[in-house]
Amino acid sequence: MIVRREVSDKVLKLAEQYPVITITGPRQSGKTTLCRQLFKNMKYVSLEDIDERRFASDDPRGFLLRFQQGAVIDEVQRVPDLLSYIQTMTDEMKREGLFILTGSHRFDLMSSVTQSLAGRTALVNLLPFSFREAYGKEIKKLSLDDVLYRGFYPRIFDKKLDPTEAMSFYVNTYIERDLRNIINIKELSKFEIFLKLCAGRTGQILNYSSLGNDCGISHVTVKNWLSVLEASGIVRLVRPFYRNFNKRLVKSPKLYFLDSGLACYLLNIHQPDHLESHPLRGAIFETFVVSELLKKRFNSIKTDNLYFFRDNTGNEIDIILDHGNTTGQVEIKSGQTVNEDFFKGLKFFSKLNREAGNSYIVYGGDKDYERKKSRVISWKRISDIDV
Description:
Radius of gyration: 22 Å
Number of domains: 2
Order of helices and strands: HEHEHHEHEHEHHHHHEHHEEHHEEEHEEE
Strand order of the largest sheet: 6-8-7-9-10-11-12-14-13
Shape: globular
Number of strands: 14
Strand content: 15-25%
Largest sheet: 9 strands, mixed
Helix content: 40-55%
Number of helices: 16
Distance between the termini: 28 Å
Structural class: alpha/beta
């Protein structure tokens, strides 16, 4: 299955403007495949290879001398010190598109990149397939529950894998292995419980103390583990949007998984029909929508501009898109029938905020509607939202 990623043209353009392109994202999001599609004529080396990693670590200058014409260096976070030598080489050669680096979105990689390659590298954040990448134009007969259950990791589509099995292997290998390399987890069983408890809170306002109590860890450990999950591209914390509204507003972030299929696996949802009556179906649908909005931003090489709004009396907007001088508002409803309650939060916010711009309601139905000051969009046309 060959899918041209939506970010492809942007990456090629950046390679004409910067000596180094750094592509980060969660494991198995398609970073290597993207590089091999776009830079077929460049040499490729992976630092997952033990011999290559040892060579790069022991003799970085000798390692890089092989790549006078440039190279794709995969999993560069394995040898973060190599980035300083790449900086020296790019400064001497003064060529654009010399190195394409990929790596898991981790603390050590990003800190090394910002320290060593500041001003020399373009940063690309690649998440798993977007809805449009995964399904193209074949959306008429799609079932929402099937889409939520399958998720969007490319290998599931490419190899036609069973999503539950694939996510089981993914959690047991990539997530647990990577995270154990970053933080000292003495009791792995607690971390497994922590992951599942987080999945049960996707789409909800985060209470660190409550999550820690349920897992038997301190709130400090909760924050530490969550920061690692976020840096690894597994979850996203959406911050509250507040300006001088003269209101008491919620200040805790909302937690979202970045893949609905992974959230389903962690919630023991092993068939699409399990979602039909699941109490968290609405939260999983919201997770899907939020991740799609983020993918559209990242595929356009834009930073995260997603927030939410909620005051202490229950008025809320699921997502606020901050465009600087204006905002976009997105309400997310998994139901298939549009009713007036869907518009309540949007009406309140438009009166409160003079900068409120386009408003959207994304829902679980198939039809689109134009309402006064609001656009109702089917989940199948999620990519139509201006982020």
